[in-house]
Design a protein that fits this description.
The two termini are 31 Å apart. The longest helix is centred in the first third of the chain and has 22 residues. The protein has three domains: 111 residues, Winged helix-like DNA-binding domain superfamily/Winged helix DNA-binding domain (Arc Repressor Mutant, subunit A), CATH 1.10.10; 103 residues, Nucleotidyltransferase, domain 5 (2-Layer Sandwich), CATH 3.30.420; 111 residues, 2-Layer Sandwich (Nucleotidyltransferase, domain 5), CATH 3.30.420. By secondary structure, the chain is of the alpha+beta class. Helix 3 crosses helix 4 and helix 7 crosses helix 10. It is 35% helix and 26% strand. It has a five-stranded mixed sheet with strand order 9-8-7-10-13, sandwiched between helices. The chain has a five-stranded mixed sheet with strand order 16-15-14-17-18, sandwiched between helices. Strands 1-2-4-3 form a four-stranded antiparallel sheet. It is globular. It has ten helices and 18 strands.
Length: 368
C-alpha cells in the first residue's frame, strides 16, 4: 500500500507504506510521464507538489468541518489519505493556528487518541455577491459557518468606492483573510474584461486593486461560473459531469457551463455570455427568446442536467424547457431542476476556489 508525504526540509515527494489513494495515483501518473523516479522517490516540480499538498490539506480541513472533533485515525478513514500524510497535515495546521487540540478520546483498551478541531476564528471569509445594484454580503468563519450577513445598495457610478466601504466595514470588526467578489460581467484572471451595465470599469484589474488596498487574498469571478462550480460540488462523479446553470432575472440573463468537470471560461472569459444571443425580440419576460438560448446551450454542451434559478422576473421554467427541447432526440434531452440556491451555489463555488488556491492559509502568499 502507498502513502504520500513530504519532509518539511525537502521538495522531494516520497512513496512509502500506506494506502493506494487518488493522490498516489496522481503522483505515479506524473512520475511515470514526466518526472524522475529513483529508488521509489519521485522528483516533483514545485507547482505539482504545491497542488498535491493543497489537495491533502483541503481534504483534512473538509473532514474536520464535517466531523470534528476527530482523531488521526478518524481523519484517515474520512479522507482515505495515508496516516503519515494526515499526521503531517495536522502538525502543520496546529503550528499555524488553523487546528486546535481537542479532548483526549475515551480509551477502548489501547492508547487514548488525541482529538482535533478547527479554530473558527483563524480567519474569516468575506463574500460579496453582486446582485441588481446590491451587494449581498456574507461573512463566514473558518468552519464555513455564516456569522453575519447584510445587503448594501450601490450605484454603478461609484461601484468601486462603495465596494471598498462595504469591505472596510467588515475588516474593522473581523480578521478577514480572504475577500470573494462575484460580478455579473466578463471576468478573466481577476480583471473585468467587459461589463455591459458598467462600461467605465472595462479593463479594470479588480483583483489586483483589492489586494493592493487590503493586503489579503482576493478572488474575483463571474457569478454564473461560480454557480455551476458550486452546484457541481454537491454532486457525485464531478470529473465527468456536464452541467449548466441558468438564471433570467438576477443581473440580466446568464448561464454557467461545465464540461467533463471543468468550468468553461473560454479564451477571454466570454463563455456563457448568452445575453449576446440575437433574437427577434429580446424579451426575458416571455419564453421564446429564453427557450432559444437554452436550446443552443443544450446543443453545444449536451449537459446531463440544467439547473434554473428562481428570480423575481422569470420563473416559467416548465414552458421554457418544453420549447427548448422540442424536436431534439430523446438521448440529448437533459434532466432539469429548479433551485432557490443561487447565492448559496455562488458561495460554494468560492469555497471550491479557496481550496484550490490554498487560501485557507492566511498571508499574502498561499505558498507561505
Amino acid at each position: 500500500m502507498l502513502d504520500l508525504f513530504w519532509p518539511p526540509e525537502s521538495d522531494l515527494y516520497f512513496v512509502d507504506g500506506g494506502r493506494y489513494t487518488a493522490f498516489a495515483r496522481l503522483f505515479l501518473r506524473r512520475a511515470a510521464s514526466c518526472e524522475t523516479v529513483v529508488g521509489g522517490i519521485g522528483l516533483l516540480h514545485p507547482p505539482e507538489l504545491f497542488e498535491i499538498r493543497n489537495r491533502n490539506l483541503a481534504e483534512v480541513l473538509a473532514a474536520l468541518r464535517r466531523s470534528a472533533p476527530c482523531s488521526l485515525a478518524q481523519l484517515v478513514e474520512e479522507t482515505e489519505i495515508g496516516l503519515t500524510t494526515v499526521k503531517k497535515c495536522i502538525e502543520q495546521c496546529v503550528a499555524s493556528g488553523m487546528v486546535l487540540h481537542g479532548e483526549i478520546a475515551a480509551s477502548t483498551g489501547g492508547r487514548k487518541a488525541q482529538q482535533y478541531l478547527l479554530n473558527p476564528k483563524y480567519q474569516y471569509y468575506l463574500m460579496l455577491l453582486t446582485d441588481n445594484n446590491t451587494f449581498v454580503c456574507r461573512l463566514y468563519d473558518f468552519n464555513c459557518c455564516c456569522v453575519a450577513q447584510t445587503r448594501r445598495s450601490f450605484s454603478m457610478e461609484h461601484f468601486f468606492e462603495q465596494l471598498c466601504g462595504a469591505i472596510r466595514f467588515y475588516l474593522s470588526e473581523y480578521e478577514v483573510g480572504t475577500l470573494c467578489l462575484s460580478l455579473p460581467c466578463v471576468v478573466k484572471d481577476g480583471k473585468i474584461v467587459d461589463w455591459y451595465y458598467n462600461p467605465a470599469l472595462q479593463g479594470f484589474p479588480m483583483q489586483e486593486e483589492l489586494e493592493r488596498c487590503f493586503g489579503v487574498h482576493v478572488l474575483v469571478q463571474n457569478d454564473m461560473k461560480l454557480t455551476v462550480l458550486g452546484a457541481a460540488s454537491n454532486m457525485r462523479e464531478t470529473a465527468k459531469l456536464n452541467l449548466v446553470t441558468a438564471q433570467f432575472g438576477h443581473n440580466g440573463i446568464g448561464v454557467g457551463e461545465m464540461v467533463n468537470g471543468q468550468v468553461l471560461e473560454g479564451f477571454s472569459g466570454f463563455a456563457g455570455e448568452v445575453g449576446y444571443t440575437h433574437g427577434v425580440r429580446k424579451d426575458i419576460m416571455g419564453t421564446a427568446y429564453l427557450a432559444r438560448i437554452v436550446r443552443s446551450v443544450i446543443i453545444c454542451i449536451n449537459p446531463q442536467k440544467i439547473i434554473f434559478y428562481r428570480s423575481d422576473r422569470q420563473n416559467r421554467f416548465d414552458k421554457i424547457f418544453e420549447e427548448a427541447v422540442r424536436g431534439l432526440p430523446a438521448y440529448a434531452v437533459p434532466e432539469y431542476a429548479v433551485s432557490e440556491a443561487y447565492f448559496q451555489d455562488m458561495t460554494d463555488g468560492f469555497f471550491r476556489l479557496i481550496d484550490r488556491k490554498g487560501y485557507y492559509k492566511k498571508g499574502s502568499d498561499p505558498n507561505a
